[in-house]
Amino acid sequence: MAEFTTGPVRSVLVANRGEIARRVFATCRRLGYGTAAVFSDADADAPHVRAADVAVRLPGQTSAQTYLRTDLLIAAALVAEADAVHPGYGFLSEKEDFAQAVLDAGLRWIGPPPGAIAAMGSKVAAKKLMAAAGVPVLRELSADEVTEADLPVLIKASAGGGGRGMRVVRTLAELPAQWEAARAEAESAFGDGTVFCEQYLETGRHIEVQVLADAHGTVWAVGERECSIQRRHQKVVEEAPSPFVEVTPGLREKLFTAARDAARAIGYVGAGTVEFLVAPDGSVAFLEMNTRLQVEHPVTELTTGLDLVAWQLRVASGERLPDSEPGTNGSAIEVRLYAEDPAKDWQPASGTVHRFFVPGVTCAFEVPDTRGRSEPVVRLDSGVESGSVVGVYYDPMLAKVIAWAPRREVAARVLASALAGAEIHGVVTNRDLLVNVLRHPAFLAGDTDTAFFATHGLDLLASPLVSPDAERLSALAAALAVAAENRRVAPVLAGLPSGWRNLPSQPQRRVLAAGASEHVVRYRHDRDGLIAEDFEGVALVSAAPSEVVLDIKGLRHAFRVGRYDDTVVVDSRAGSVSFVLAPDFVDPADAVAAGSLLAPMPGTVVRLGAGVGVGEVVAAGQPILWLEAMKMEHQISAPVAGVVTALPVEVGSQVDLGAVLAVVAEEGDGEGRGEGEVPE
After folding, report:
1. CA gap 505, 205 in Å, rounded
2. β-pairing, 54-58 with 34-40?
3. What is the pLDDT of residues 591-621, one digit of tens each?
4. How far is CA 58 from the centre of its chain?
5. Other beta carbons within 10 Å of 671
6. Which residue has the higher pLDDT, 203 or 414?
7. What is residue 77's three-state secondary structure?
8. Which of 37, 97, 189, 645 has a C-alpha 20 to 30 A away from that of 156?
9. What fold is seen in the domain 588-666?
C-alpha cells in the first residue's frame, strides 16, 4: 500500500463542506485546477456546492450518512474525474483509513502519509512517541493514579478533538462520574472510549506552531498562533504572532524546535499543526498534532504571505520547499462567528440566515501581499450567504472574520468595528461576545490565557453591545418601519403616515420583544410631526420599510431595518437588535403546561438522567436528559424541585425545536397534570 505519492494534479475533490471547501476551491481556481464538491441533502443549496465546477450528491442528511462515508467519497471523486482529494478539516481529515483508501483508489491524497496520521491519531500513543523524540510532554495519568496533589486534572479522549470527551476535574470525589461521562461521550463521538488524565493548568496558554514539510526531508516551522481564548475547549479567537511569545525570550525557538522534531519523528509531509500548552513561566508541553489544515490557518497566511492550501497542492505534486523559512509581517487576528448564544451555555442556533453582510471586507479566501502595506486587511472566509440555512446536522460555525494590520492594536480595532457593523439576520450569534473580547483591556494587553472567560466573566463578555436606551430607540425605529410597510401596501391613503390625524387622537401602539425585554411603543403623527411617548428629544426625519432616520437631540441616526414575518431586525451604529412582534391575539392552543422543559433546538436524545422517570422526584438543576445537536451535547436540567409528571421522549428520540421533553410539577403545585399526560 502506498504511504505517500507525488505527481501532477489536475482536478481536486474536497471531501468536506462549508467555508473550508470554498477556501480550497478558491486556491484551486487561482492555480488552474478543476474542482469537485460533495454535498448532503441538507447542503443541496449550500454556497460550497455552487463554488465548484461539478458537485456530487451524497444521499442522506447526517454526517454519518454522508461526509463520513469513505465509500461514497471515493466513488464521488471517481465519477467527478478528480485525481486528488483534499479532506479539509474535521470529518475524515485525520482518519488514516480514509487517506489510505484514497491512495488505494489511485488518487492523490492532499495530506500527510497515512502512517503519520495514525501516529498522531491516539493522544496516548502520540505522547509516548513525542517523549521518545525529545519533545516535552505532560505526565499521563489513569483514573486510579490521580492524587490530591495532581488536581485539577483534565480528562481527555485519546481519539478526540473539538472539545468532545473532555472534562475538568477539581476533586477526587467527582473523578469517577466525570471519567465515565467522558468515556461515554468519546465512544459516541469517535467510536473509541479510551480516555486519560493529565494535569490541568488553570491559566496556561494554548500556543501552536504551523509546520510545512515536503517529501524530500525539509521541515518548516511557519510561525506560531495564540489560541488560548476558548469555549468548551474549542477555540474562539486566534492570532499570529502570539503576544506572549513576543515578550518571552527564547520561547519561539523552543516551540519551533519541538514542532520540527515532532514532524520529523513521524515522517510528516504537508501542512500540519503541533499544539502546545505553555505555562506562565514559559515551560512547554506537547498537547497533540493536528495532521491537517487548521481552522485558524488564515492568520498564518496573512502574516507570512504563504497560501498554505497552494503549498499543500505543491507538496502533493512533489515540489520542494525552499531552504529558508519565511519571515512574518504585522499581526493578524481571527474570530469564529458561530450561530450560538454564549449567554445560554453556548446553545447553538439553527434557521435561515436572511441577511449576511460584513462591512469593510477587502478579500475573501485570499492571501494578499502585506509586505510594506500600511492599510489594514479584513478577510472573510464564510460558509454562508444571505438566504443560507443553518441546519442541525453540522457544526454551527457561520464564518471566520480575520483582520491584519502592521500593529496588533489596529488589527483588533478594525476587526471589532467590522463585526459590530455586521448585519446578520435570522439566527442568534456570538458576535457581541467577540466584539467585547476584542475591545477588552486584557485582550488588548495580550493577557489571553485559557481562563479568559472565567477570569473576566462570561456574563459581562456576552452582554449585548446595544445599551437599554439604544434598544428602546431601535424598538421605536422598528415600529415606525413596520408602520411604513403597512402604509406602503395599504389600498387607500397609502401616502399618509399610519395613525395620522388632524386633531390629537389615540396613539399607535406596538409591542416588541427582544429576548426577555418587552417594549411597548406608543406614538402618533400630527401636523408637527412624530410625537412618541417617553422619547424626549426624538424627532422623525424619515421612515421607510428598510430604514428609519431619527433626530435624537440634534444628531441624526440611521436605523437599517429588516422584516421577516413577525421578526424585525434593526441595525444601527449602536449595534443590532432582533425584535419579535407581539401578536394582537394569542391562540390558547399555543400554551404549554407550567414546568414544561422545551427543546432549545432540534436534536437527538442521547441519554436520560439517573433515576429520572415519570413519578420520580427531582431536585432543581438535576439533569433530566442530554440532547445532541450540532456536534455537541446539551444538558437539560430540572428548572425547579418537583415531580416528573411527563416524559414523552426516550433515548434515540428525534425532537424539533420547542418540543416538550419533560414536565416537572413544582413541589406544592396542586395543579399538575395527571401522570404521563403530555400537553398538546
Report:
1. 64
2. parallel
3. 667 788 998 888 889 999 988 999 999 999 8
4. 24
5. 9
6. 414
7. helix
8. 97
9. OB fold (Dihydrolipoamide Acetyltransferase, E2P) (2.40.50)
Q: What is 11-110's CATH number?
A: 3.40.50.20
Q: Which of 363, 251, 356, 352 is nearest to 298 (CA)?
A: 363
Q: For the chain, what are the domain ranges? A: 11-110, 205-461, 468-581, 588-666
Q: Hey, what amino acid is at 73?
A: L
Residue 149, C-alpha cell as written in the block: 496533589
Cell numbers for 139, please give them: 505526565
CATH of 205-461, one of 2.60.40.10, 3.40.50.300, 3.30.470.20, 3.40.190.10: 3.30.470.20
- Say if CB 399 and CB 379 are below 8 A apart: no
The three grid cell numbers given for residue 205, joined into one nine-digit string? 496558554
Residues 6 or more apart whose Cβ sits within 8 Å of residue 324: none
How many residues does this entry show for the chain? 680
User: Distances in Å between the alpha carbon of 475 and those of 108, 533, 616?
Assistant: 56, 13, 44
Reduce the DSSP state of residue 349 to 3 states and report it.
coil
Q: What are phi and psi of 143, to 5 degrees?
A: -60, -40
**Residue 491: partners with Cβ closer than 8 Å, 6 or more residues away:** none
How confident is the model at residue 601, as a pLDDT?
80
Identify the three-state secondary structure at position 300: helix
Alpha helices in 328-397, H assignment, sequence order:
none
Long-range contacts, stretch 160-165, CB < 8 angstroms, 24+ apart: 160/123, 160/186, 160/189, 160/190, 161/94, 161/288, 161/290, 162/90, 162/233, 162/234, 162/631, 163/230, 163/232, 163/233, 163/234, 164/189, 164/190, 164/631, 164/632, 165/189, 165/190, 165/195
Rounded Cα gap, residues 517 and 580, in angstroms: 11
> The whole model's pTM is what?
0.87
Architecture of domain 468-581: 2-Layer Sandwich (3.30)
Contact call for residues 359 and 571 (beta carbons, < 8 A): no
Residue type at position 162 = G
**Helix (H, G, I), strand (E, B), or coil: what is residue 73?**
helix
Cα angle 657, 659, 663; round to 5: 140
Residue with cell 436540567: 637
For cell 481529515, the residue is 93
- With CA atoms as reference, report the closest residue to 535 among 464, 465, 474, 467: 474
Which tens digit of pLDDT belongs to each residue from 194-223? Answer: 898 988 888 899 999 999 999 999 999 999
Contact 331, 239 (CB under 8 A): yes
In Å, what is the CA distance from 394 to each residue of 249, 603, 660? 42, 11, 23
C-alpha cell at 647: 416524559
If one counts every other C-beta atom within 10 angstroms of the C-beta of residue 532, the result is: 22
CA angle 47, 52, 58 (to 5 degrees): 75
